[in-house]
User: Fold these one by one.
Assistant:
Number 1:
Amino acid sequence: MSTDTIGARIKYWRLRRGGMTQNVLAGLAGVSQSYISQVEAGRKTVERRSTLIGIAAALQVTVADLLDQPGDPTDPAKAGAVDTVPLIWAALIEIEEGERRTATWTAEQLSVGIKRSVELRDQANYPELARTLPTLLLAAAGHDDGGRALAQVGYHASACLRHLGYRHLARSAAKVALSAAEQSGQAAWVGAARFATTQSLPIEAAGVASRVAGRALTDLQGAAAAPDVRQMLGMLHLSAAFSSAVDGRADDARAHLEDAAREADTLGDPEDGAGFNQGGFGPTNVRLWEMSIAAELGEYGRVVELSQAVRPDPLRAAVRHQSYWLDLGRALAQSGRSDREALTAFIRAERAAPTTFGLNPLAHDAVVAIVRRAQRRSVSDDLRVLARRVGVDVDA
């Protein structure tokens, strides 16, 4: 059985569970049988992470199993990055165990390496970033700067591994970053490492992630006068808001969003489009997260409404541009708008960050759904090109 979509993997695991029927699965997951049928056929996508959690629990598998993460190591989208993951893991273990090597890089070499990692993260070029990390992590760990370099590189490693689908290793990298940040005594980097931790946790642990963010918000209050810390407080509110939405606590999500918006209004968008640790915290980023949260809550009309009041242009990070177009495309597809409008948004999302679009199971399945709905009439040239770029066989 082909398992190239979330729906196909749901069917695979359903049949592995003693031939569980769609009706039984739907009842256990709290959705309709017709919804399960359309998802398995690839005509609908699973848009909400909370729904993924319910279906995975009913099938007694993890959400990662349904998303096929970390996925096929030969996937061209990863462009050889998978070969480097064992080396990153080994470097993280070496650092966690305290086996610090003597520094072999000069301060200038390390600065150049970190600057390059910043550029790659801005571009969302995670396969290339992965290839730099084994050496860069060990170089930062061996550098005597009080832990700041390792806090930054550890954060980059966590973000990279998460986007490549290795959440368990992303959490290890976040722990390395947190230890280094605490050693440095710099509250903003402690906040960044805590944020990385919330982002690295499995989707099923959304409740834990929101509590981790909440504790970090409390711990950072004593240093809240510093602009960098305030940016991280805002980012932690955003993380807590999204995690609360996934956990089914819409009121908590909105409360954290309001706190983030108040912080953002006093700071404004970062002049360089990046801000502290490339977080891009400000009014624009808050609105982009609000779009993602509305999508998670199933408020697709609200997503479209928000998209008309904000553009990601003030921000430098490619993933923030992609988030805007991907959330809009999914909302258009779900809210009854034409697939043509959704396709235009998906094309913009893929252009913003091709690698992460190709690695995103939700993005992949959204394209599949449009392809399968289009087959009765025809597949447009634009859709055919996008489908092939993300590995979807339009002739299947």
Number 2:
Amino acid sequence: MSIRPWLMDAIGAWVAWLACWLLVHPRNPWQVLDWPNERSLHDRPVPRTGGLAIFCGAVVAAFGLKWEVARGGLIMAGAILAVALLSWYDDRKGLSPRLRLAVHVVAALAVAIAAIRLPVIWLPGVAITLGTPLTVLVTTLFLVWWINLYNFMDGMDGFAGGMAVFGFGALAALGYRAHDPAFAGIAAAVASAAFGFTAANFPPARLFMGDMGATVLGFAAGIMILDGSARGDFPLWAGLTVFSPFLVDATVTLLKRVARGERLTAAHRGHYYQRLVRAGLSHRRTVLGEYALMAVCGLSAYGAAGAPVPVQWAIIAALAVLYGALAALVWWWEGHEQISSKDAR
């Protein structure tokens, strides 16, 4: 592969960083402030238009790819653009959850019908083939969940941006390993743009990515997990593992809220990373710990992608044990802090 895409990735990261600097400037006419609420971990208003910086950086970085790479992805690009424009307007003016969800469903359905298919290998040694109607339904639901999952998890400085750097970076590495420079190049372009943004979003954040950044990154992650798996670059479970720090937290937290009968549209601070910060761990230490987990998951997926089936299952089991241990650690930390607070009083 030529050096030009790597150079464009570097330029894309710089463009994203420069766009962040411009968006933070108080005279920026597009600036929209994110005011703290009951869900927030920040205590001061912060601009939330960083998604535009990620979008610009990724587009610039993608210029390093050959024209043939983008020719077959017009449907996916159009759907992502529609979600981006809707979310940009939502960041500025606000839209009803029903309208947002309707657009998400239409965009995901368009991709499911015209541009993507489910992979055959879902788990190590487990091949599943679905009929066309069921494939379209499952793909649509999968993509809608990823659009909103990423948005749910965008609640701590440096977190969602870091997940994009590690997640799309790992997908790029898996693509290069599979000798698929087209897929790898797109993933690297997104990772580089996210890296430029994260420089401005690392604690204490000067800029948030907003709904535009979170929904577009989630949509892109869902599409690339399915597409890379369907192309045979990696098994589906490996693509999910790369983003499992978000997938596991969001899914487990949602199921717990459903079990408690909570209103799902209400703001909350029940995610594991939010609980750690509320228990007294600093934003920076929490996000650095999450980065370590992201690195472990990315390396595990990369190492297991071409391994024998028993090794793949062993890695899945090890990751399940790791997540169980981390959940127990969060629970212990909360109890420890509560005891310490009572002793201090």
Number 3:
Amino acid sequence: MSLVKTSFWNGIAVAVRMGTALLLNKLLAIYVGPGGYAVIGQFQNLISMIVTFATGATNTGVVKYTAEYFDDEEAQHRLWRTAGTITALASIVSAILIVLFRGMLARDLLHDDRLSSVFLWLAAGLVFTSLNALLLALLNGKKEVKRYVISNIAGSVIGLIVTGLLAYSYGLYGTLVALSINQALVFFVTAQQVSRTTWFRIRYVFGRIDRSHLKALGAYVAMAAATAIATPISQVAVRNDLAAQFGWSYAGYWDAMWRISTIYLTFVTVTLSLYYLPRLSEIREATELRREIIGTYRIVVPAVAVVSLTIYLMRNIVVRLLFTHDFAPMEVLFAWQMAGDVVKISSWVLSFVMLGRGMTRLFISTEIIFSFSFWLAAVIFTRVFGFQGVAIAHLFNYALYMVTMWYLILMRSPETRTATDPG
């Protein structure tokens, strides 16, 4: 399926997601407030880390090798059994650890011992959440875009209904419970979509672990683990620093700003995952790889720039539409955040090459370095420029990342250098 067709189907899912996000953000703004947004951000960062470990961090590798073995079903099945068995075991172990350490997690991360029982809900649904992520990876790797989109739409609708009802009824506590179980509920929709394909059988997902595929997945486990640890930890550190300087409400304003970026950039990031990542895995020639990168740039970056500029110009309306007047202080972040988002996507077009081509060491080192540099830049810039310094740090960090990716991927990597390139 082409990038344009993938973008079309993904656009349907993103349109639904943005519509549900509009309603959900409004509900959360009313029922949890800016301070609650900061706690939700902390919890979502933790969920991101936990789910990565509960899936054995195999999902990116499953996407790559499912696409790469498109003409070898037996190899796909050995891969899936390896990933499925790892996921089942890792999610069970992770759930047990969550139950055992729920008090510490509530106290140190959410700063409220009374929220410890939320982690019981997270543990209860973790196996289904992990299996949902695995099945989505299978759909992605098999390029079943329509079924992938249906599952994502279901996730958006279920998330709106469950989170909205629980937030209305129980405030912040209900919101955290909803975040714990939403993806577990979506599993049943994804499982139904996968079961209707001609290529899936349940016996293909569980069974003997294949050593060769385990080794092949190892590189992607390391890369996913680096992202799962470095990125959320840096965000938690930035959030804690903002709270220490300006209070938890300001940490919530930044989280709300980050949420806006996530919503409108989802169209691009999911499209890159659906089309671009499997495509990078298929390409054999450096010339073709460079052509794919340039072609993606021509479509993606101008689109993001136009949307970012529009959001900036309509920032007053956006804040009042998505949130409440209590979130007005976040408006000072828009200019720097939107500019940073354009640079971020520009750099990601290149950084996806590291995932698609299995550049393990380079990916891990850059993830760790630039996650740390974002926190460091935020600490420095907020003390020089005030609250808006956190958005300035976002732009500054991705500008450095973009330059680094351009040099490492296009100038130095043998994967993209052709015989006519200098050096």
